[in-house]
Amino acid sequence: MTPDLSELVRTIPNLIRTGKIAEIRADKVRVRLSPSLLTTWLQWVALRAGDVVDWCPPSVGEQVIVLSPNGDLTQGKVLAGLFSADSPAPQTSLTIRSIHYPDGAVVLYDFGRHTLSAILPAGSSALVKADAVTADAKETTCTGNVTIKGNLIVEGFSALNKGAKVLGGGDGAAMIVDGDVQAAGDVKAGDISLRRHKHGEVKRGDESSGASQP
Q: What Pfam families is this protein classified in (predicted)?
C-alpha cells in the first residue's frame, strides 16, 4: 500500500511539539501549541507514580514538550521543565540543586560548598513529626526562642550566660541539686542574703550562733 503522504505530513510534526500550559486540572493539563491550536486534556509526566509517588504539578505558562504516539495529539503526554524567557533558570552554578517556590521559599544544596539551606518566607512554619529526631552536629545555633513542652535532659555541661528563671511545679521544690553549689556572687532566700545577713544570739569566742531569723 502506498503511504498517504498527506497523512505523514500531518502526523510527523505532531510527534514532538513544544508549547505552554494554558490550563491545569489536577493530573491533566491543556497545552497551547500555537495561537490557534489548544490540546485536549492530557496527562503530564511525574518523576514517579508507583510505590513512591512524586507530586509537583506544572503551572500555567510553563513551557513543555508534548509527546504524541503516531502523531495523535489526543493521546499526547506532557513533559514539563523547559526554561524560557518568561521563566529563566534561577541558578548559574553547576554545583547547586535547588527548588524555588512562588512564595519565595528556596530549598538548596550546594555540593561544591557542602551547604544545605531551606529559606522560608515571613509568616511560614516548618514541622518535623516523628517518634525520634536526631541532630548530629558539632555545633547547633538557634537564633530565636526555644520552647520545650516535655522534659529537658542535658548530659553535658550547661552554660547560661544571661541568667535563668525556674518556676516550681506542684508542691515540690522548684529545683533539686544533687551535688555542691558554687556561687561567685551572693545567694538570697527571700530577703535574706547569704553573704550579708546577720545572726542573732551570737557570743564572742568559740560558741556557735543560733539560727538566722526569717
A: Apex, Phage_base_V
